[in-house]
User: Fold this.
Amino acid sequence: MENRNKTLLEIFLTFLRIGAFTFGGGYAMIPLIQKETVEKHGWISDKDILEIVAIAESTPGPIAVNSATFVGYRVCGFTGALCATLGVVLPSFLVITAIAFVLREFQSMKVVQYAFFGIRAGVLALILKALWSMYRQCPKNPVSYAIAAGSFILAAILNVNVLLVLILCAAAGFLASTISLRRAES
Assistant:
């Protein structure tokens, strides 16, 4: 029982730290979640991270919260999921609550505007790192690249919105996986 409580506290503190020191949302948190849960604590494997991202993207809600919930559940069941979710959400909740009271006073200051530009650049770097990490772990299939590129080009030519691009890419991924499975079966 004491060991389980220690693990629950570790889950809460790990995700509290991830939630407190990561800017840019869920995709920026993925490399940190991977490092903490796989490399540092050994709670899950690298393969599990890919599954977590896929599940977290396909379920409603922020990807970081969904990922934390999934990892917590994997490690300590419902209570672990609750601790991980509270840990990852609590810092943002507290910071946003505090900022809401003072932001109106400072939003017109140039130094604050420049700080947000810098934060955006850092977030972009974290997202690109997460994408690169996931790309390295995924099986390579030239057909899926061609279909996804064609979807983006078609969307750009037709000047469509982002939602249609996502739908086209999802359809392209489904088509590519279907083609790969059929080739593997024959």
User: Anything to note?
Assistant: The chain has two domains: 2-138, 139-186. Residues 139-186 form one domain. Residues 63-106 form the longest helix (44 residues).
